[in-house]
Write a structure and sequence with these properties.
alpha+beta, SH3 type barrels, 2 domains, two-stranded antiparallel sheet, 1 helix, 7 strands
Amino acid sequence: KAILKKSGFICGFLFLIVVVLVNVFASQQKKLSLNRDKAIVVSPGLTVRNTPSDSGTSLFVLHEGSKVIISDGSMKEWKRIRLEDGKVGWVPTSDIEII
């Protein structure tokens, strides 16, 4: 009887540890999937504009491989980006790859 109690306690404790670990990993995966705010420029010479339109004023040019932060991803065709130095502007979604 004592052995049964002891093995039941150990199994319960191990089950609790597994449940906690699964929840921690699930939480991390959810956070990663929701936190899709970084991107890489995939086109050479990407012109960043002041509005989400090809007719918007050209602000500056980014080179392929540049890292950007997406500050507004609500539009399908355009993303508002921010650079580490604080510069902001709009780029076509097709010219960046979200990471």
